[in-house]
Structure prediction request, 627 residues.
Amino acid sequence: MGQTIKIDPVTRVEGHAKIELECDDSGKIEEALFCVNELRGFERILVGMEASTLPQITARICGVCPTAHHLVAAKALDNAAGVEPPPAGKLLREFMYMGHVIHSHSLSLFILAGPDLVFGLDGAVATQNIVGMVDKDPDFAQKGLRLRSLGQKINETIGGRGIHPVTAVAGGISFKLNPAQFDKLKELTAEAVTLSTELAAKTKALLFKLFDENPILLEKLNLPTWYMGTVNGGKLNLYDGDIRVIDEAGNQKIEFGAPDYTRYIVERAVKNSYAKEVYFDFEGAEHMYRVSTLARMNVVDGIDTPLAQAELEEFRKNFGRPCHNAITQMYAKLIELVYACERANEIMNNPALAGETRVPAKFKGGRGVASIEAPRGTLIHDYEIDEKGIVRAANMIIATQQNVAAINENLKEGANNMLKDGDDAMLNGLEFIVRCYDPCLACSTHAIGQMKLDVEYTRNRKCIRKVRRG
Amino acid sequence: MRSTLIVCIGNDLVADDAVGHAIHKVLTDSSLPEGAILKFLGLGGMDLLEAINGEDLLIVVDAVQLGGDVGTVHILSWEQLPSMEPRPVSGHGIGVKEAIEVAKRIYPERVPGDIRLVGVEGICFNKVGHPLTPEVQRAVPEAVDVILRLAAGETVS
Prediction:
């Protein structure tokens, strides 16, 4: 198990994303490479640790999606110990996770992308920030910030902490909700559903305005690929289910459980970046595929909650299924935000939530594998744990890593179409393409703002020109 | 009665970035002036919006790099607070100033009457697992003293 893509926010507090564009003699871009300098290490650090600490330790991989790592590690421990958490344990984990998704998607849509939505892509830098956004549209900003905060409070009430939760353990959840926590969660989830509905209409209007103002993005960024996402009974499920893969025409190719991922997912080291490209190996051929919000909207048959299902139907009416355009990722994120609020409310009102939350778990020696839909796509943790409960090997497939090949393709197409527009427009355009994927390669690149960015033009692998910002 | 909120910010795993945490620890064991509340936030950012509640005085405590001698305890007024970059690349790029500016617009009733930043000049912010540098460690009692006097309504500059 030699796979080594990992995120360490502590070492990545600063840094540049680099894009390399390989040109032919006529100046046409033949290849684009999105490069990151990732720290390789977590999978090694974990070896020799007590398995029971994995949910806490792996949550620290990322400050953006800690709850995804926390929960998938706990699920992998269930798998290794051969236990199934009781219904209340599973519901509480999923409830915590819905809080996290509400938090993460709200942060991404309303705080980081918010200024782009409110001002458009060409807004003046001086006003295109959170304060400017609040000035321009205080109601939108207030509701967006409030929804983010509600998500974090749900995550904190169940997870014990707002950012890096601690309560998921092998076999379930380490505590039971008391009446005061029940009441608090009831209030939080009801408010979240109301707010998400109000925000959805407004955000949709802003998204359509953005699409209308940037027709070239809709035209040129159509990239047919395969898609991967988790379904339960064919429906969207972010916490648990089988991994479904469809081809570029929307045909379902396969559904498999997380432990079988090594049969299909292959990694390949690439030049100039620590982020390996990942492909889907199916019936003797390798296919480029994508994960994340758009991929999930493409793979699911439907969504079990009514408001999100209505949004999905509208999305499909506008963009078809499968939709191949990366710039609709934000729209897909909005649909999931509505779903997460509704699902949290559903769980809140499920009487099974009051039951036992944990079963004993003992490691007998063997492998534990699990997956979850992290905000940015399918996340897999795979551990070898010995009979003393010590981690002997660890492997992780990170969501963003699976999108790198598609990011590169989109960059190539985008760069060829924007070459004539000058350096600033080119930087903004390329950055926007990267942002569509909301990549969480590290803390410095996960977000939507003005990235520090280097673009290098190369010919025969030799740098012929550099454009730099930041 | 005068109300004061003391918010300490920092990362206790990273050298001088831990000074807010170290000060918080000392203040937790100190007797605070009447009407003073103490909170700890790992990051300032938007979470500050939820922490404030219209207090008369907000004291934000954090490590700073303003170019002074290491270990200097700075007391900054609202007007002197530095701004972050206009376009943050992450939620971490939203500072105290931005959070308060946002609060003024959407939760004006939560904005504290007066705001002070007590900042300890640090030098090492990139070593995980390292303790405070000695100069910063030595500055902790002075910072605590300044905070307690501000919270008690004294004029400290």
Q: What stands out?
A: Residues 1-16, 442-449 of chain A have pLDDT under 50 and may be disordered.
